[in-house]
Amino acid sequence: MERTSGIPISVLDLAPVKEGGTIADSFRETLALARRAEECGYRRFWLAEHHNIAGIASAATAVLIGYVAGGTKTIRVGSGGVMLPNHAPLVIAEQFGTLETLYPGRIDLGLGRAPGTDRLTMRALRRNLSSNVDEDFPRDVAELLSYFAPAREGQMVRAVPGQGLRVPVWLLGSSLYSAQLAALLGLPFAFASHFAPDYLEQALKIYRHEFRPSETLTTPYAMPCVNVFAADTDAEARRLFTSVQQAFINLRRNQPGLLPPPVETMEGRWSAFERAGVDHALRYSIVGSTETVRSGLESFVDLTNADEIMVTAQIFDHSARLRSFELLASVRDTLR
Question: Does residue 238 sit in helix, strand or coil?
Answer without folding.
Answer: helix
